[in-house]
Amino acid sequence: MRYGVLGTGAVGRALAGRLVEVGHEVRMGSRTPDNEAAAAWAAEAGANASNGTFADAAEFGQAVLNCTNGTAALDALAAAGDENLSGKVLIDVTNPLTFETGRLTLTVCNTDSLGEQIQRAHPEARVVKTLNTMANEVMIHPEQVPGRHSVFVSGDDAEAKQHVAGMLESFGWPPESIVDLGGIETARGTEMFLVLWISMMQAFGDRTYNINVVRPD
C-alpha cells in the first residue's frame, strides 16, 4: 500500500520508517520539495521511500498520516490540498501543544479538539486519531513496554478505523490492546491526556511507558 506521511520530525520519521519496514511504499512530505531531513530519510530508508511536498505526499498516499507539529497541522493539511485528501483515511497523530506561556498548555480543549478541527476542515477525508498518547518509540514497537497496554482510536468512519487497526497490528499491537473510543469528538480526551503524559515523563525521567485500560473480564 502507498502511504503519505506529512512531517519530517521524529514522529514522522519513526512512522514512515516502520511503514517501509512492514512492506509499504511511503512518501514523506514537507513544505519544500528539497527538505534535507526528508531527503536524508528517503535515501536511508531504501527503494520504497521517497520525498516531496505536502501535496506530493498526500497525492501519492492511498492513506495519509499527519505527523506535523500540532500548531501547524491545519496549515500543513491545507498545503496538502483537500483534493488530495478527499475520500482517504487521514491518520492524525498530532497534539495541540504549545509552550508559548513558558508552561505546557493546549491550544484547543474541552469543547473541541484538533482532530475535530481537522475533520471539519477536510470533511471528505476520513479522519482517525490514534497513537498520540505515547512516545514514537512505543508507537512503532509496542513490545518495548512489557505486558499489555493500550492504544486508542477515535473517528467517525468505521471502515477507516478498521484500516488503522490493521496498521497498528502490523506494528505489533495486539487486537485486544486497540481501544475504539467512538467518534472523532473523543479525540478531546486523548489530546488532553498529553498534559498528564508530559508530567509522567518528567517524573520518570524516561519516555518508554504507556497506560493500560483494565476492565473486568
Question: Can you count the helices?
Answer: 9
What portion of residues belong to β-strands? 15-25%
Shape: globular
Relevant CATH superfamily: NAD(P)-binding Rossmann-like Domain
Main β-sheet description: 8 strands, mixed
Percent helix: 25-40%
- Strand order across the largest sheet: 3-2-1-4-5-8-9-10
Spans where pLDDT lies below 50 across 5 or more residues: none
Helix/strand class: alpha/beta
Rg is 16 Å
Briefly, what CATH class? Alpha Beta
Mean pLDDT value: 96
| Record field, number of beta strands | 10
The SSE string, one letter per element, is EHEHEHEHHEEEHEHEHEH
Number of domains: 1
> Span between N and C termini?
36 Å
CATH topology: Rossmann fold
Quickly give the CATH architecture: 3-Layer(aba) Sandwich
Report on this structure.
The chain has helices at residues 10-21, 36-45, 54-60, 73-80, 82-85, 114-121, 136-140, 158-171, 187-204; strands at residues 2-6, 25-30, 49-53, 63-66, 89-92, 97-98, 105-106, 126-130, 151-155, 178-182. By secondary structure, the protein is of the alpha/beta class. It has one domain (2-204): 3-Layer(aba) Sandwich (Rossmann fold). An eight-stranded mixed sheet has the order 3-2-1-4-5-8-9-10, sandwiched between helices. The protein has a two-stranded antiparallel ribbon with strand order 6-7. Helix 1 links the parallel strand 1 (2-6) and strand 2. The radius of gyration is 16 Å and the shape is globular. The mean pLDDT is 96.
